[in-house]
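Homework-ish question, so no full write-ups if that breaks the rules, but can someone show me the predicted structure for this set?
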Amino acid sequence: MNYPNNIKKDVHQTPISYKNRGMDLEEELNLSNEYYIEIDKAYIYKKPTPIGVANVSYNLHGKVIEKGYFKEQSTLDYNGLYRGKYIEFEAKVTQNKTSFPLANIHHHQINHIRNILRHQGIVFLIIKINDLVYLLKGFDFIEFIDNNNRKSIPYSFIQNTGYLIKYGYRPPLDYLKVVDEIYFKEE
Amino acid sequence: MNYPNNIKKDVHQTPISYKNRGMDLEEELNLSNEYYIEIDKAYIYKKPTPIGVANVSYNLHGKVIEKGYFKEQSTLDYNGLYRGKYIEFEAKVTQNKTSFPLANIHHHQINHIRNILRHQGIVFLIIKINDLVYLLKGFDFIEFIDNNNRKSIPYSFIQNTGYLIKYGYRPPLDYLKVVDEIYFKEE
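A: Not a homework solution, just the prediction itself:
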C-alpha cells in the first residue's frame, strides 16, 4: 500500500555525548525513541501522566486547572509500533542493589500487562539496577509474580531472566536490538 | 504459549438500554470497549488527557497541582489491541450537518496518524454526524487532507468513503464488526 510519508522529522545534528551516566533513564529512552523515529525504525512515544482534576476556572485562554493531583498510571509509560507490532513498556530505576521492589509496579499495571500478553502485544519492563539496564519480558515478570509470594524481584532473577541492554552513542540505549533477539528471532 | 489469564473482569448484569440516544459518543464507546474486554474480544482503552502543570504544592498525600491547563492531545483518544494488531482511533461528534470541520483534529494528531499508518497500525476516526456514526479509515482521511485544500470534510465524502457503524444493544456501537470487514477481510 502506498502510505502517506511526509512527516516532519526532528533532526539532531549536534554531536551530543550520550555516554553521560548522569542522564536519567527516561531521558535516555526519550532520546532513543527520537532516534528511532528519525531513522523511521519504530514509532514509540511516551504517554502523558494521568491527572485527576478537582477544580477548574475559566480565563481568556480557556479552562484552567485550579486543583489537581497525579493519578496512578494504569497503563505503562511507553507505547507504539515496531515492525508492525504493538509494543508497550515501563521504565524503572531502583537504587536498591539486591532487588527490584514490586511496589514500583501498580496493581492496575500488572493487569494491563496480562491483557497485552493475552492479546499478543509485545510488553516488557526496562529496569535500571546497579547502573545496568535490563529488559525483563512481561511474560517472565508475570510468571515471577504468579509463582513467588515476594515483595521484590531479586537482582539475580533479573540477571538470569532479563536481557542486558548495552549503552551506545546513538541511540543511547538500543533496546530494540534486544527486542529483535527476543521477539523476532525466528525471522 | 501459555499466557497468564486471571484478569478480573467488570461484569455488567444489569439490563441497560443502550439505545438511549442521549448517551454521548464517548460513553457509547467506553461501554462498547468494556463489553469487548468482558468477552475478551479486544483490549482497547481510553488514554488520559494530557495536562500541563504550572504550579505544584505538597501536602500529606503528596504532590498537588495548584495550577495546570489542558494540553492538546497529540495522539488519539483510544488505543489498544485487536486480533493481535495495534489499533488506535479518535472519536468526534459534530453538530454540523453538512461537513466535519477539520479543526477537530490537531496538526500533531494528523502526524500521529501518518506515523501509525507507516508503521502498519490500524488507525481511524469515528465521526458522529447527523446522528449517524461512521468509521473513516486513517488512510482515507490522510488522502482527503493531502488532496483537498479544505477546512472540512463534506458529509457526502464521509457517507461514500466511511463505513456506517450500527447501533445495537451490547455493545452499543459494535465498531469492531466494521473493523473486521475493512481490515481483516482477506482472512
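Now go work out the reasoning yourself. Hint: Chain B is about 30% helix and 30% strand.
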